[in-house]
UniProtKB/TrEMBL annotation, chain A:
The keyword Ion transport does not apply. Its EC number is 3.4.19.12. This is Ubiquitin carboxyl-terminal hydrolase. Residues 7-226 form the UCH catalytic domain. It comes from Sistotremastrum niveocremeum HHB9708.
Automatic annotation (TrEMBL), chain B:
One of its GO terms (cellular component) is proteasome regulatory particle, lid subcomplex. Coiled coil: none annotated. One of its GO terms (molecular function) is proteasome binding. It comes from the Eukaryota. Residues 115-147 are annotated as: Disordered. Keywords: Cytoplasm, Nucleus, Proteasome. This is Adhesion regulating molecule. Residues 1-115 form the Pru domain. Its main location: cytoplasm.
Length: 320, 301
């Protein structure tokens, strides 16, 4: 099925988008950007349930298939990627649905139950056919009145080429869930003490990065984790009740930083859902009425000329 | 040379060790500087304070990047994050006190969004897309004899940086050459609405409350902040809005939007390109003005 026929829109691979998706699915977890896998950063994000490794599909790493430990008898939730545009949502589902005791809304619960016992390919098809899921996924891209797909403007850039891999522990084993592989891949057991599975995940991810020629791999990391706010708020109350002013201050700062981030996400999500055409027109009309459109247009014409001149210069020089 | 320094503050870098996934916090004393170059473009430089050498020179187009505080870390780490690519550059504040960190970040973001940004009009540190928490500088402890407060603070910052910065790599990059963040696909040979809808160009509108209020109904209905000049400016500077403007630029370039522009009350020819679109809006504004003035009983077209 082509992306156009599938009805799944391209979405941004942004923690704010994923967190909102989880909310729509009734899953009480959040997704955060992860800039570092060092122990203290990871410790500060616990409880941590899954890591999402997303990267641009450039020249594939030279990995010997023989050494890959597929678990064809995997009993948890694993779906193949059937529609490219759905890859992000699929990865989130593969990550979330293997978390023991995870809360989810009735629609997602119904979907998971419905696909029990299916092979990965069939489950992938079932997921992709879910109207509910598709709408949840699409709800964070702009309404199609101004969709590039409708106008057939040619290939979009980076978002198409992203691939997602989830690392998560299931029954004491670290698994790699890659929607383009036939089954989940086992990466071994991990100690139940100390850092536990995340230490093993760090090693696995690092080794993977090292298989690519330096500079060829463009990637991001995200973490699926328990929402820290309820816990922080409870802690704050307790500290305030106990008169621990300094510690309460520290917790308050953390809460404040977390709430700032959520507000930024809510702001960006409201823009993602919004068709900007009316706003763009209103701004230009308002600017014209304020007497500033002519000057702005003149400035824009200058910039256009500069762009054209620079492009010609670059073309003449030949790009390095 | 018409280079103008817009902003400068002490900052260090963290960069990738070649061939590995680790990023080392570099203890080298440096400064992050924003300049308007003689090419009229915004340059973000990192300069080595010991040698005076400029070691990083990034040219950044408006609204391409944001300077965000990295959460979950003890150090004062910020990341320069690009909206259309995976590029990430990490910096850490090297001023003795963190009391100006949020202010610097606000100004960096101001310039990144609009090179004409005026820092004296900045709304304050807790604005737009930053992780600013309430900032109270930590009380400096007494320095042991022979060590200055400055050195002690830098040592503390260094230790906390090194212990937390095992950041995974970002695309391997050469840090010694100037790099233009240039998206050849988007080099438009046509007029671009992105160049028209800049915060500085929109100032005449922002300073007119009556006209600005007319824009409010077109804002996202679930915007989590009240409508105001500030929230509109924040929207204009957002990657999401910018992407929408670029989409409209590309769509208008096809000349096929005659149907769509009618829904805005514009004539068909407004859909033929960016230039005709703007001309039609200009006429629409005059027309509305004649309608609104009321006194004049003359009919206009």
């Amino acid at each position: 099925m082509s992306d156009e026929e599938s009805g799944w829109h391209i979405t941004e691979s942004d923690p704010g988008v994923f967190t909102e998706l989880l909310k729509t699915l009734g899953v009480p977890l959040i997704v955060d950007d992860l800039y570092s896998l060092d122990p203290s950063t990871l410790a500060s994000l616990q409880p941590l349930h899954a890591l999402i490794f997303l990267f641009k599909w450039v020249a594939p790493a030279d990995s010997s298939e023989a050494s890959v430990d597929y678990d064809d008898a995997f009993e948890g939730f694993f779906a193949n990627q059937v529609v490219n545009n759905a890859c992000a949502t699929l990865a989130v589902l593969n990550g979330v649905c293997n978390i023991p005791g995870v809360g989810m809304g009735s629609e997602l619960r119904g979907l998971v139950d419905f696909t029990t016992g299916m092979d990965p390919q069939t489950r992938g098809l079932a997921i992709t056919s879910s109207e509910f899921l598709r709408e949840a996924h699409n709800s964070l891209s702009p309404p199609s009145a101004l969709s590039l797909a409708d106008l057939d403007l040619g290939p979009r850039d980076k978002e198409d080429a992203y691939h997602f891999i989830v690392y998560t522990p299931v029954n004491g084993v670290l698994y790699e869930l890659d929607g383009l592989k036939r089954s989940p891949v086992r990466h071994g057991v991990f100690p139940s003490t100390g850092e536990g599975w995340v230490a093993l995940a760090r090693d696995v991810i690092q080794k993977r990065i090292e298989t690519y020629p330096p500079g060829s791999l463009h990637f991001n990391l995200q973490a699926i984790r328990t929402d820290p706010l309820p816990g922080l708020r409870r802690e704050l109350e307790a500290l305030q009740a106990g008169g621990h002013v300094n510690l309460a201050q520290q917790i308050l700062r953390q809460i404040s930083a977390e709430e700032d981030k959520r507000q930024r996400w809510a702001f960006e999500n409201s823009l993602r859902r919004h068709n900007p055409l009316g706003l763009i027109h209103a701004l230009l009309l308002g600017l014209a009425k304020a007497g500033g459109l002519e000057a702005a247009t003149t400035g824009a014409k200058e910039k256009m000329k500069e762009r054209i001149a620079k492009a010609r210069e670059e073309a003449a020089k030949g790009k390095k | 040379m018409a280079t103008q320094t817009l902003l400068s503050f002490k900052a260090g870098r963290s960069f990738r060790r070649e061939g590995s996934s680790f990023v080392d916090a570099s203890p080298v004393k440096g400064s992050l500087e924003l300049l308007r170059g003689d090419d009229e473009l915004l340059h973000l430089l990192w300069k080595n304070r010991a040698t005076g050498q400029v070691e990083d020179d990034l040219i950044i187009f408006p609204m391409e990047a944001q300077f965000l505080k990295v959460p979950h870390t003890a150090g004062r780490t910020y990341v320069l994050k690009f909206s259309s690519s995976n590029q990430r550059h990490f910096f850490w504040m090297q001023d003795l006190s963190d009391s100006r960190d949020a202010e610097y970040a606000t100004h960096v973001n101001g310039y990144l969004a609009d090179p004409e940004y005026d820092p004296s009009t900045a709304a304050g540190p807790a604005s737009s897309s930053q992780q600013a928490g309430p900032s109270a500088p930590p009380a400096p402890s007494t320095a042991p004899a022979g060590v200055t407060e400055d050195q002690l603070a830098e040592l503390r910052a260094l230790v906390s940086q090194v212990s937390q910065e095992q950041t995974l790599s970002q695309p391997g990059q050469s840090y010694s050459s100037a790099r233009i963040c240039f998206y050849t696909k988007r080099v438009s040979e046509d007029l671009s609405l992105s160049d028209v809808l800049t915060p500085s160009n929109l100032r005449p509108l922002f300073s007119n409350p009556r006209l600005l209020t007319a824009v409010f109904p077109h804002l996202p209905p679930d915007l989590p902040v009240p409508p105001s000049a500030e929230s509109i400016q924040r929207i204009i500077e957002s990657p999401q809005f910018q992407a929408g403007v670029r989409s409209l630029d590309q769509a208008l370039a096809t000349g096929l939007l005659s149907g769509l522009v009618k829904s805005l009350g514009l004539p068909e020819e407004a859909g033929l390109g960016v230039g005709p679109f703007l001309t039609a809006i200009s006429r629409q504004a005059e027309h509305d003005h004649h309608d609104e003035s009321g006194q004049d009983s003359m009919q206009t077209d």
